[in-house]
Every structure is written in C-alpha cells, then in structure tokens.
Amino acid sequence: MKRIIPVFTTMMLLVACGDDNGVTVTSLFVIEKTNCLAPCSLEVENRSQYATTYLWDFGNGDTSVEEIPTYVYTEPGTYTIELTAMNEDQRAVFSKTISVIDPSACKTVKVFYVLPSDAEHTDRQQIVAKAVERNRQLWSRDGATFIVEDVVTINSSLSSNEFLNNNDDIHNNPDWNWLGNAVNEVIANTNVIMNDPNHKSIVFLEVDVGGFCPCAAAANFHFAGMPKWIIDRIEQGYDTEAGAIGHELGHTFGMPHENCDSQTAPKGIMCNGAGSGFGGFPDVRLTNWHFNYLFTDEHKGYFVETACE
Ligand SMILES: [Zn+2]
User: Fold this and answer.
1) Considering 81, 103, 125, which residue would you say is the last residue of a domain?
2) Measured distance CA(208)–CA(227) in Å, rounded
3) Separation of 217 CA from ligand 1 center, angstroms?
4) I need a labelling partner for 151 at 20 to 30 A (CA). Which of 128, 183, 187, 286 fits?
5) Cα–Cα dist 237/92, whole Å
C-alpha cells in the first residue's frame, strides 16, 4: 500500500501550512549596522513573507506599524528590535539587538566626498574609499590603526567656482576658500561639527584648485581636505598622492612639518611628496616622532579598536 503514503504526506502539509491560502507568515528583517553611533538612523530591510500588517517594537517603548519604518535612536543603549508580522490568522515574531553608541565614547575618522553642482565626476566614491582604506592599513602596519567610517557623499548646490571664490568665513586667505567651503558643506549637511575632539574628517572636494592656487591639500580644525587632482592621481594609481591623505590627517592630529627639508626618510608622514626626494608616505614607516603625536591622551582613542565601527 505504499502509494497511499504520499497522499497522507500532502494532507499533513496542507494542515501545517495554516488555513489562510495555504501560506505561512514569517517575520524577518536585516539591519545595516548592529553598532551605530547616536543619533542612529535605523536602516532596515523587511524580509517578512505573507504578512499584511506589521508591528515594530524598538525596544525603548516606541513602536511603528509601517512596513519599512524610519526611526532614529537618539539615546545610547542596547535595544532589542522586535518585528511582529501578521495576517488575518497568523503572526510571527523576529528580533535582533542593536547597540547605539555614545559618540563621545569613541573616536573615528569620517570621510566625505563633496560634489559641486557642476561636477564632472560623480562616481568616484570607491576610489576615495579605497585610498582611505589603503592609508588605514598602512598606518595599521606601523601600529596606528585609525577607525574610519564609510564615505558619505554630499551633493552640493554650490558650483565649482563658488567653492573657489565664496568667502568661507574661516580663513583670511582666499587660497583656502575651497577647503573652508567644502567643510562648511559637510557641516551644513551632516551632524559633523567644527573642532570636534572625537572626530577627524577627511573631505574630498571634486573641484580642481590647481590653477587657482598652489594648494595641494590642506588640514586644520580637525578636517583634512583633498581637492580633485588628488583624487585624479589616486585613480591613476599614484600612491604618493594617496599618501597626501596620511599627511593631511597627520596635521589634524597636530603634527607639524618639523624640519622636513633637513630630514630623510624617517619623517615619513609629514615629509612626503615629490619635493622631498624620497618615496614619501605611505611607503615610509611611522617613527617615534609620529607616535608622540598620535598616541597622546588626546588622540590615542582613534587608534584603539572599540565597538564604534
Ligand atoms: Zn602639510
């Protein structure tokens, strides 16, 4: 009587699948980051199946019935996000924990790619990310791993000309307007602040300053700036230009060009570049001279791996 067995199996499956169109509601979601700096915008992808309504519990008393909710955690803490997916007859529950981190508890390097309204190139975030990652790895090789965040692209309404010529209200020298205006755009479009003791920022500006002033790259007030030609050269594979990131980042940590002219290789980070007669950073290793700056109490938090990524 073996032929009967499949019939029973089918019937049992039908019962197990519930009585609503023969489907089973499942609850599932993924979140982009399980560690997130406050204020943390929850980026959630709802992968539940066969549900018609949803109830999100954010673990702090707040709820939402949206299929894909937008939610911002403002208070640091650990929260269990619970999603109940439902149809008329069934419900399923899935939960996941997120840590919302107090930004003052960790130090990170933020990276921004600022595009003017007339930008020729709008698709080089990957180049920027790669160059920064290369620096991160090379610093790490020498014992100074900085914690870097993803590249954030900012689409500006300012034209290239405005970046170069608008008074940035930061510098007295118009040669540096491009950097000040790029920083102003970052501040206007993000939660980054000026002189933030917990975050250094690298700002790539898709504007060519070469013909305007001799500014290769520049840094102060916790921001390092990289104009278009630096990105061009990095794209072409010139590591010395990638090294300019390390150089400018060094400035944001307070490193001066101490005796560059009279030094040979050991002054690595701050003495890079074509004029210095050697390979330059990132091919030159960090020295105790650098570590004195990098590992002061003020800065060492940048180089300690924490849950801040
Ligand atoms: Zn410099």
Assistant:
1) 103
2) 6
3) 8
4) 286
5) 52
Tell me how far the alpha carbon of residue 306 lies from the centroid of ligand 1, in angstroms.
29
How confident is the prediction for the chain on average, in pLDDT?
Answer: 83
pLDDT of residue 221: 85
Q: Is residue 174 part of a domain?
A: yes
Burial bucket for residue 234 (CB in 10 Å: 0-12, 13-18, 19+):
buried
pTM of the model: 0.66
Residue 215: give its domain's CATH number: 3.40.390.10
Range among 52-61, 230-239, 247-256, 298-307 rated most confident: 52-61
Measured in Å, residue 161 CA sits from the centre of ligand 1 at 24
Q: How many CB atoms lie within 10 A of CB 66?
A: 12
Please choose, from the candidates 31, 42, 49, the residue with its C-alpha nearest in 3D space to the C-alpha of residue 96: 31
CA 160 / ligand 1 centre spacing (Å): 23
Distance 216 CA to ligand 1 centre (A): 9
Domain end call among 103, 121, 143: 103
The pLDDT value recorded for residue 147 is 83
Q: Which residues, other chains included, contact 116 with Cβ-Cβ below 8 Å and sequence gap of 6+?
A: 156, 158, 159, 160, 162, 163, 205, 206, 207
Residues 42-61, mean pLDDT to the nearest whole number: 96
Going from the Cα of 193 to the center of ligand 1, the distance in angstroms, rounded, reads 22
Distance separating alpha carbons of residues 37 and 146, to the nearest angstrom: 17
253 C-alpha to center of ligand 1: Å?
12
| 223, 119 contact by CB (below 8 A) | no
Question: Token pair for residue 87?
Answer: 């149809």
Look at phi and psi of residue 237 and say left if phi exceeds 0, alpha if psi is from -120 to 50, else beta.
left
Summarised one tens digit per residue, pLDDT across range 216-255 is: 778 878 999 999 988 998 899 877 677 788 888 888 988 8
Domain extent at residue 38: 4-103
Residues 6+ apart with CB under 8 A from 309: 35, 108, 147, 149
